[in-house]
Amino acid sequence: MASETRERLVDAAWECVRKGGAVGATSRAITGAAEANLGAITYYFGSKDALLAEAVGGAIEALVGPALEALQDEALDPVSRVLEAIEQLQQAYEQSTDDAAVYLEVLVQSRRQPELQRRVSQVFAEIRSILATQMEELQARGFLPDWVQPEPMAGLLLAVAQGVVLQTAIDSAGPPHTSMADQFARLLFASSAHAQ
Hints:
Elements: H1 2-24, H2 27-34, H3 39-45, H4 48-71, H5 78-95, H6 100-109, H7 114-140, H8 150-170, H9 177-190
């Protein structure tokens, strides 16, 4: 029962953020949606900010989770892993297109909310680590040149993914995210070891 209440609070917090942004995710709105009392937030999370951090971090993990699994799928060769991860990210984006603005808003607001910034940074650090490992393996197998630095390249890939979300959220008449992702994948692999 206690874990159910905690889970309801997390789900309700994310729904409140989706509907009204972080500003709309008041303690009363969250507990009302979760059918819990106001004290439940403090009891389970310590603060509303900690609850929002958990909700947003969980939403981002759910969004990128399949892509990260693809990157770690040892049944695939390194290039296929990257291509499958891009496909998984595209599918996730298609399913959450309406949430793009919410993600962007929350990421910007995280600079002012230490709990949220800590949680988002934790998620992004995990993503960068997995991407860097893949860059190292691609480099070791000759798919990427020596000048590629795995950690900075992983950061760049993450920045590009966020940039694509931003671009498609504000410029609906621009190229679709699938075309941009395809172009970026081609650009990445065009810088193969032959270009050293």
